[in-house]
Structure formats: structure tokens, C-alpha cells
């Protein structure tokens, strides 16, 4: 999940607490070129205030205009944008003949909506991955516990004699898991470049460094700064299964402690910067002083990142974030 998803749900919660009626839109499927993947959210009010996106422009404008005119009064409905969709037209042109299918839910104010949105926020912050069931007739929705792995939008098998792939069943399942998080162990020029790339990729970014003056030098809005040892932050529950932990300082006192703690966490990516020689020496230290076995060491990407021949901080950060995306998307290095 992206950090934008958490922003959407938190804004929805704020509006719901104010007694507002909300429209929660979820991208169900895309065909052709689309800047947003299935599962992406947008929340809006009738007056046009909104957070999130569905396509990056034209679809949002059309949806908000129709919403202001009184459309989408049903508790739930599916709409299609693009060639052949019900909202096709000169003002709604998706690139490459694309087609976008969106679930639109009308959420009335009340305790039920507040409880549901609060549960979504908990799933996004890593407390409890969930599978969200939405019924397409009537709009009933509920959550159940989930492993958090797999496609974000799931159509259960067809039933009642329907031919698979030709008709949608009566409900859709929407996977909601922790927002992708990047924990940067210590400030450095490479860490700052990584933070900027990660934000663009939709990660929640957290920089841990016991030196408050180093954190003060970071000028990126939206990056969380934690003035503590990264190992202490991780030990205190700072990682979930959608977390990447990277150490980019060249300070073995900071980096080694971070690695020792990170391998005990659920983090999907753990990496530390250094040459092959430096990495070999670090592995020996981690075995000798940190008590890490071969299985634990195998979890650590060292040297970190893809082998792009990077030299500058920005190039190294690009190699690091590219490798994190590769692992998150389940791609082997040999497949690149």
C-alpha cells in the first residue's frame, strides 16, 4: 500500500467525525495505461473537496463534476471510464485506449462508518492486515483478518452457473495491508536522496538518528524524524511486513546494531551500504559479535542495491530504491 492510501483514509475519518457524507472510490481494474493500480483510493465530499486519485486527472474531474450534480446516490455502484464505458466522452480520454473500473461507495455519517474507517486505518498502520468484503447490492461491507499478501482486488469465483470471466459475482474482496515503510538508519547524503525517491514511490519514510542536529538538516516535508538509535526504534516495534530497513552511513557502530535488530523483525528488505570487502568484514563481525547465523545473514542485502555502477549519492539511492522495489514486487535479480 502507498502512503497516499493512509492519507485518504485519515481524511475520510476526519470528515466522518464531522458528520459529513463521503464517497469512497476504489480502482477495481485497469486496462491499458493507468498511473494508479487496482486498490487505489479517492475520497470526496459533495462540494468537491477530495484526497487521493484514480487516474491522475481527467477521471477525477469528471467524477467530481457528476458528484456535485447529484450523481452516485446509491450505496454502492461500479462505473467504467474509457472506451466503451458508461462515462466515455471527449472530456474523459484515457491514454492508449485504457479502461478504468471504479467502485463508488456512499458512506453515511454514523458509528458504523467511523468504526469501519478506523479499522482500515489500523490495517494501514500495520496493526492488522485485513480483507475487505463489499457487497455490490446494498453496499454492506465488513473486514476479516488477512495475511496481507497477494493481489489487492479479488473477485471470488463465479457462482450460480455463471461462466468464469464473463460476469462479476455479488461481492468484491479488497486487500488492505500496511503502508510501505522505509526506515533509514542514520542521516547521510545517500539517505536523504533515498528519502526523496521513496516519497515519490509512495513510501512512508522514517529517518532514525540519535544526532538531533543531523535530523534538523533534513529539509524534506513529510519525512518523520526520530531522534533515537535505529536499533532502538526497530526493537520498539518500528517494523512491519511492508517495511524496508536500510543503513547508509558507513558507521559500523550504527549500521551493525541496526542489522542485528532488523533481522529479528518482519521487514521484507534489510540492506547496508559498503563494498564487497567491507560487507565481508561486516558479515564476520555480525557472526562473531552479534551472534547472527547464516540464515540471518542471508536476509541482509550487502552490498545494498542493484549493481548500476553508481557513484554519486543520488545514483546510489536510485540503485537502493530500485532493489527495494524489485524485492517488493517479487522479481528475482536474474529476471531483470
Automatic annotation (TrEMBL):
Domain XdhC Rossmann: 182-324
Signal sequence bounds: none
Domain XdhC- CoxI per the UniProt entry, residue ranges: 15-81
TM ranges: none
Listed InterPro entries: MoCofactor_Util/Proc (IPR052698), XdhC_CoxI (IPR003777), XdhC_Rossmann_dom (IPR027051)
Pfam families according to UniProt: XdhC_C, XdhC_CoxI
Protein name: XdhC family protein
Organism: Halomonas saccharevitans
Amino acid at each position: 500500500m502507498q502512503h497516499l492510501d493512509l492519507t485518504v483514509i485519515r481524511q475520510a475519518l476526519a470528515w466522518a467525525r464531522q458528520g459529513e457524507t463521503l464517497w469512497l472510490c476504489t480502482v477495481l481494474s485497469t486496462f491499458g495505461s493507468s498511473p494508479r493500480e487496482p486498490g487505489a483510493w479517492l475520497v470526496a465530499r459533495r462540494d468537491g473537496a477530495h484526497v487521493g486519485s484514480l487516474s491522475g486527472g481527467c477521471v477525477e474531474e469528471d467524477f467530481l463534476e457528476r458528484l456535485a450534480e447529484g450523481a452516485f446516490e446509491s450505496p454502492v455502484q461500479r462505473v467504467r471510464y474509457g472506451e466503451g464505458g458508461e462515462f466515455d466522452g471527449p472530456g474523459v480520454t484515457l491514454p492508449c485506449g485504457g479502461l478504468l473500473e471504479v467502485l463508488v461507495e456512499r458512506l453515511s455519517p454514523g458509528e458504523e462508518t467511523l468504526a469501519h474507517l478506523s479499522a482500515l486505518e489500523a490495517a494501514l498502520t500495520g496493526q492488522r492486515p485485513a480483507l475487505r468484503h463489499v457487497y455490490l447490492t446494498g453496499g454492506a461491507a465488513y473486514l476479516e483478518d488477512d495475511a496481507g499478501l497477494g493481489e489487492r482486488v479479488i473477485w471470488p469465483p463465479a457462482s450460480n452457473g455463471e461462466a468464469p470471466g464473463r460476469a462479476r459475482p455479488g461481492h468484491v474482496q479488497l486487500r488492505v495491508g500496511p503502508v510501505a515503510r522505509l526506515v533509514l538508519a542514520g542521516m547521510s547524503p545517500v539517505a536523504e536522496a533515498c528519502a526523496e525517491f521513496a516519497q515519490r514511490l509512495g513510501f512512508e519514510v522514517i529517518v532514525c538518528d540519535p544526532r538531533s542536529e543531523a535530523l534538523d538538516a533534513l529539509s524534506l516535508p513529510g519525512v518523520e524524524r526520530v531522534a533515537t538509535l535505529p536499533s532502538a526504534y526497530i526493537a520498539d516495534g518500528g517494523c512491519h511486513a511492508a517495511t524496508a530497513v536500510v543503513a547508509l552511513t558507513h558507521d559500523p557502530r550504527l549500521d551493525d546494531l541496526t542489522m542485528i535488530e532488523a533481522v529479528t523483525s518482519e521487514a521484507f528488505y534489510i540492506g547496508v551500504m559498503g563494498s564487497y570487502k567491507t560487507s565481508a568484514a561486516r558479515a564476520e563481525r555480525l557472526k562473531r559479535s552479534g551472534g547472527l547465523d547464516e540464515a540471518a545473514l542471508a536476509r541482509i542485502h550487502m552490498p545494498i542495491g542493484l549493481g548500476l555502477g553508481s557513484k554519486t549519492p543520488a545514483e546510489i539511492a536510485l540503485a537502493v530504491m530500485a532493489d527495494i522495489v524489485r524485492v517488493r514486487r517479487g522479481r528475482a535479480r536474474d529476471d531483470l
